C-alpha cells in the first residue's frame, strides 16, 4: 500500500537496498543502522569520543604554542637586554622569562595528558571497529546473496578505517619554534643546509650564554640562601628563649620593626627564586640540546661534517 | 609546649615528596651546650626565692627544632608556617641555699595566609601562639623570663605603588602568665590588647635595600592589675609606637631599626617613654664561615619614679643591652657548627641596679632535608 503522504523516493526504494540495510542492522544488533559505514551506535559513539579527544588535544597544543611564543619573546628580550648592558632591564627580562617558563611545563603536561586520552580513545575505536568487523565477517555466510556485495563494500570501508586508526601515530614533539621554522627544503643544497646548521648553532650559543648567566645568578642566590639561613637560625636561637627581649613592653607586642604577620606582600622567597631559575635553566638546556642535535643532523645531511 | 613538640615531630614525619605543593624553606634541628655566668644579686618581686649570692654560673644543654614551610594554593595564594620548639636544661651552681636545675620549654607557631589581590595589593591574615614554661626557676642573678602563653592574630592589607608600598593592619593579642601559688603577682601581667598599625616601605631592588617607616596605636587592658583609681579600678594602657627599619640584602644581610614608645595609662606608675635601637648583621667570612651580630639597646624613662620595686624584669624594668655574636661554619652539606657569644646587661626591678649575663654556646645545626 502506498501512503498518500509518503515521499515518492521511498516508493521507489529498491528492495535490495532495504534488505542490505536490514541485514547490516541485524548484524549489528541494533534497530537503527548508521548511514556511514553501516556501523553500530557503539562504534559511532567511539568515533565521537575519538574526535572529541582529538579536538581537546588540538586545543591543548594550541595553548602550548601560545605559551611557547610568550617564552620565545621573553627569551629574545633577555638577549636584547644583555646586549644593552642595562642591568635593571636584564633583571626584568629574566623575571619575565622565569615567569614564562613554568606555564610551558603545565601546558606540556596537559598536552601529554590529552595525547594519552586521544591514544586511549583511538585504541578503543580500533577495538570497536575490529569487533564490528568480526560481526560483519560472520554475516558474510548468512546474508542473502543480493546484499552480500553491499556488505562487502561496508567491510572494505571499515577495514580501511581500521587501518587508518591503527596506523595513525599521535604524539607531539615539543620543538622550539626555530626548529619548526628551519627545516630542510627539498631544494636545499649542502651549503644551504650548512647555513641552517650555523644558524641553529648560533641560537644554541645564545642559550649557552643565558645558561651561564643563570648559573652565576644561582650561585649568588645560593650564597645568599646560606647567609639567610645562618641569620634566621641565629635570630631564632635567641628569640625562642626570650634571650633578646628588651624591656620596652610585653613580649611580642605589635608595632615591632617587622611588619605584622611577617609578610606584607607575598614576595618570592630565596627558595622560590632558586626554584624558578632552576626551571628556567632546565628549559634553556633542553632547548639548546634539541637545537644542537638538529644542527648535528643537518651537518650530517650536508655531507658528513659534524 | 610538649604539644608543640608533638606537632613538630608530626610535621617531620611528613614525607618530602609532597614538596609539589609544600615547600620546606628550612628545617633545622639544633643541639648544643653552653657555659653561662651571671652576676648582680638584685631583689625581684617576680621570684619566689631569694639567695644572697652575687655570682652564679650554669652549664646548659639545649635542644631545639625549627620548621619554615610554605603551602602554595596557587600562584597568588599561600600559607606560610613557622614552628619553633626548644628545651633548655640548666645545671646552676654558686647559690648559697641550694643548687638549682631549671628547665625551660619554649615554643611558637606562626601561620600567615597571604593572597595577592591584584598587581597592586595583597592581603595577609596571620595568627600565632607562643608559650614558655620554666621548672625550678632560680633566684637572681640567674634571671629567666617567667612562663606565659601568648595568642595573637591580625589582618594586614598591603598596597604597592611602584617602589613604594603602604600597609595597614589590625591585630590583637592575649598574654597569660603562668603564676605559682607562691608567686601570684605574675598574674598581674595578664594582658589583652588590640591595635592598628600603618607603614610605608620604600624599596630599591637594584640597590638591595628597603626602608620601612611605621606608626602604631595599641590599647591594652590588664584585667588583674589594679590602677589604684577607684573609678577606673583596672589598669588600661594606650601605647603609641613609631619607628623605622632599614634592611639590606646583598653580599651581606643587614638591618638597623629604631623604635620609640610612648606608654600612657590610667595608672600613673607604668607611664613611660622609651626608645630602642636594634641592629643585625650577617656577613660571610673566609673558610666558608659566616658571622651574625645581633644587638639591642634600650633607654626608658618613667614619668613617675617610685620607691617600690617594678613588677617583672623584662617588661617593666628600665634599660637593657643585649649583644650576640655567632660564628657559623658548615661541616657537611646538612650540618653546621655554631659558636655563640652572648652578653646581656639589664636593669631589673630596682632602678639603677643591673645584672649581667655572659654566655658561650657551642651548637650543631642539622638540616635533614638537604
Describe the structure in your own words:
The complex is a heterodimer of chains A (306) and B (370). With 306 residues, chain A is mainly alpha-helical. Chain A has helices at 8-11, 15-28, 41-84, 87-140, 145-167, 177-181, 190-240, 270-303. In chain A, helix 2 packs across helix 4 (87-140), helix 2 packs across helix 5 (145-167) and helix 4 (87-140) crosses helix 8. The termini of chain A are far apart. Residues 1-13, 27-37, 251-257 and 259-266 of chain A have low confidence and may be disordered. Chain B has one domain (2-366): Porin. Chain B has one helix at residues 2-12; strands spanning 22-39, 55-72, 77-93, 103-116, 121-135, 148-161, 164-177, 191-204, 209-226, 234-249, 253-265, 272-284, 290-302, 320-332, 335-347, 354-366. Residues 1-20 of chain B have low confidence and may be disordered. Classes of the chains: A mainly alpha (306), B mainly beta (370).
Query: What is the total tally of β strands of chain A?
Result: 0
Major sheet: arrangement of strands of chain B: 1-2-3-4-5-6-7-8-9-10-11-12-13-14-15-16
* Low-confidence blocks of residues of chain B: 1-20
Give the helix tally of chain A: 8
User: Which radius of gyration of chain A do the C-alpha atoms yield?
Assistant: 33 Å
Order of helices and strands of chain A: HHHHHHHH
The overall average pLDDT of chain B, rounded, is 84
Quaternary state of this entry equals heterodimer
Poorly predicted sequence stretches spanning 5 or more consecutive residues of chain A: 1-13, 27-37, 251-257, 259-266
Amino acid at each position: 500500500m502506498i501512503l498518500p503522504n509518503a515521499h515518492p523516493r521511498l516508493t521507489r526504494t529498491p528492495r535490495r537496498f532495504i534488505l542490505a540495510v536490514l541485514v547490516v542492522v541485524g548484524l549489528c544488533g541494533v534497530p537503527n543502522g548508521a548511514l556511514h559505514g553501516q556501523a553500530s551506535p557503539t562504534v559511532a559513539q567511539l568515533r565521537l569520543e575519538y574526535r572529541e579527544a582529538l579536538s581537546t588535544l588540538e586545543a591543548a597544543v594550541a595553548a602550548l604554542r601560545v605559551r611557547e611564543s610568550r617564552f620565545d619573546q621573553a627569551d629574545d628580550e633577555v638577549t636584547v637586554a644583555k646586549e644593552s648592558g642595562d642591568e635593571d632591564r636584564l633583571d626584568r627580562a629574566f623575571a619575565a622569562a622565569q615567569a614564562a617558563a613554568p606555564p610551558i611545563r603545565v601546558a606540556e603536561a596537559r598536552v601529554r595528558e590529552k595525547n594519552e586520552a586521544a591514544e586511549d580513545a583511538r585504541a578503543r575505536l580500533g577495538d570497536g571497529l575490529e569487533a564490528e568487523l568480526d560481526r560483519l565477517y560472520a554475516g558474510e555466510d548468512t546474508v542473502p546473496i543480493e546484499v552480500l556485495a553491499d556488505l562487502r563494500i561496508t567491510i572494505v570501508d571499515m577495514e580501511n578505517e581500521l587501518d587508518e586508526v591503527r596506523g595513525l601515530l599521535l604524539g607531539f614533539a615539543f620543538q622550539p619554534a626555530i626548529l619548526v621554522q628551519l627545516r630542510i627544503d627539498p631544494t636545499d643544497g649542502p651549503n644551504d643546509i650548512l647555513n641552517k646548521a650555523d644558524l641553529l648553532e648560533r641560537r644554541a650559543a645564545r642559550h649557552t650564554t643565558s645558561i651561564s648567566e643563570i648559573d652565576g645568578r644561582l650561585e649568588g642566590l645560593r650564597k645568599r640562601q646560606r647567609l639567610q639561613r645562618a641569620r634566621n637560625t641565629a635570630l631564632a636561637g635567641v628569640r625562642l628563649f626570650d634571650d633578646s627581649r628588651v624591656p620596652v613592653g610585653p613580649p611580642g607586642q605589635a608595632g615591632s620593626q617587622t611588619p605584622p604577620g611577617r609578610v606584607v606582600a607575598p614576595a618570592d622567597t630565596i627558595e622560590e627564586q632558586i626554584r624558578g631559575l632552576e626551571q628556567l635553566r632546565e628549559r634553556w638546556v633542553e632547548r639548546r640540546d634539541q637545537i644542537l642535535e638538529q644542527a648535528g643532523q643537518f651537518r650530517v645531511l650536508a655531507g658528513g661534517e659534524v | 609546649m610538649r604539644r608543640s613538640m608533638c606537632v613538630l615531630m608530626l610535621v617531620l614525619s611528613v614525607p618530602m615528596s609532597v614538596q609539589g605543593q609544600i615547600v620546606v624553606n628550612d628545617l633545622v634541628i639544633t643541639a648544643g651546650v653552653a657555659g653561662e655566668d651571671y652576676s648582680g644579686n638584685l631583689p625581684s618581686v617576680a621570684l619566689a626565692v631569694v639567695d644572697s649570692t652575687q655570682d652564679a654560673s650554669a652549664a646548659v644543654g639545649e635542644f631545639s627544632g625549627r620548621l619554615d614551610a610554605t603551602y602554595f594554593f596557587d600562584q597568588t595564594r599561600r600559607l606560610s608556617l613557622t614552628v619553633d620548639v626548644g628545651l633548655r636544661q640548666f645545671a646552676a651552681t654558686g647559690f648559697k641555699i641550694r643548687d638549682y636545675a631549671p628547665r625551660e620549654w619554649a615554643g611558637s607557631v606562626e601561620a600567615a595566609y597571604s593572597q595577592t589581590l591584584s598587581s597592586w595589593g595583597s592581603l595577609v591574615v596571620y595568627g600565632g601562639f607562643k608559650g614558655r614554661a620554666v621548672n625550678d626557676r632560680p633566684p637572681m642573678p640567674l634571671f629567666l623570663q617567667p612562663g606565659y602563653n601568648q595568642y595573637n592574630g591580625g589582618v594586614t592589607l598591603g598596597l604597592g605603588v611602584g617602589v613604594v608600598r603602604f600597609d595597614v593592619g589590625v591585630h590583637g593579642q592575649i598574654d597569660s602568665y603562668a603564676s605559682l601559688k607562691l608567686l601570684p603577682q605574675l598574674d598581674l601581667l595578664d594582658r589583652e590588647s588590640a591595635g592598628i598599625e600603618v607603614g610605608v616601605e620604600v624599596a630599591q631592588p637594584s640597590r638591595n635595600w628597603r626602608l620601612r617607616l611605621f606608626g602604631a596605636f595599641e590599647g591594652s587592658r590588664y584585667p588583674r592589675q589594679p590602677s589604684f583609681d577607684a573609678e577606673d579600678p583596672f589598669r588600661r594602657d594606650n601605647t603609641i609606637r613609631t619607628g623605622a627599619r632599614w634592611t639590606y640584602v646583598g653580599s651581606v644581610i643587614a638591618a638597623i631599626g629604631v623604635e620609640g614608645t610612648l606608654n600612657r595609662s590610667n595608672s600613673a606608675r607604668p607611664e613611660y617613654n622609651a626608645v630602642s635601637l636594634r641592629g643585625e648583621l650577617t656577613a660571610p667570612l673566609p673558610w666558608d664561615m659566616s658571622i651574625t651580630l645581633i644587638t639591642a639597646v634600650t633607654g626608658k624613662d618613667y614619668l613617675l619614679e617610685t620607691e617600690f620595686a617594678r613588677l617583672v624584669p623584662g617588661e617593666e624594668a628600665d634599660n637593657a643591652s643585649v649583644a650576640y655574636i655567632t660564628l657559623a661554619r658548615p661541616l657537611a652539606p646538612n650540618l653546621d657548627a655554631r659558636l655563640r657569644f652572648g652578653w646581656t646587661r639589664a636593669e631589673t626591678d630596682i632602678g639603677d641596679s643591673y645584672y649581667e649575663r655572659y654566655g658561650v654556646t657551642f651548637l650543631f645545626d642539622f638540616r635533614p632535608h638537604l
